């Protein structure tokens, strides 16, 4: 089963727990094989956001869930490339 969530707003230290709860509820608490995360409404991610995605990826992998990040803006895509995470996630930018 494929599950898709849409994230909105900036992902920063002060709101990281909110995003972590949303990601866990929409993937780990429900049955899914693939989680698609639409990031078209995310303008900025700080280091805590990057670390959150890495943490969630490890948790997803333990449960056999594949993650696909979709519609990243150019700055977030550049950040993932700069910190060598572009190969860690399936990224679909259409």
Automatic annotation (TrEMBL):
PROSITE patterns, per database record: STAS (PS50801)
Coiled-coil regions listed: none
Spans through the membrane: none
Top-level division of the source organism's lineage: Bacteria
UniProt-listed InterPro entries: STAS_dom (IPR002645), STAS_dom_sf (IPR036513)
Domain STAS: 1-94
Any one Pfam family match given in the protein's UniProt record, by short name: STAS
Protein name per the record: STAS domain-containing protein
């Amino acid at each position: 089963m494929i599950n898709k969530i849409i994230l909105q707003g900036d992902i920063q230290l002060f709101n990281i727990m909110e995003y972590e709860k949303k990601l866990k509820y929409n993937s780990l608490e429900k049955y899914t094989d693939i989680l698609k995360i639409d990031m078209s409404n995310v303008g900025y991610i700080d280091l805590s956001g990057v670390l959150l995605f890495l943490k969630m990826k490890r948790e997803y992998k333990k449960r056999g869930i594949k993650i696909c990040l979709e519609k990243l803006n150019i700055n977030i895509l550049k950040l993932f490339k700069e910190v060598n995470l572009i190969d860690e996630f399936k990224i679909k930018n259409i």
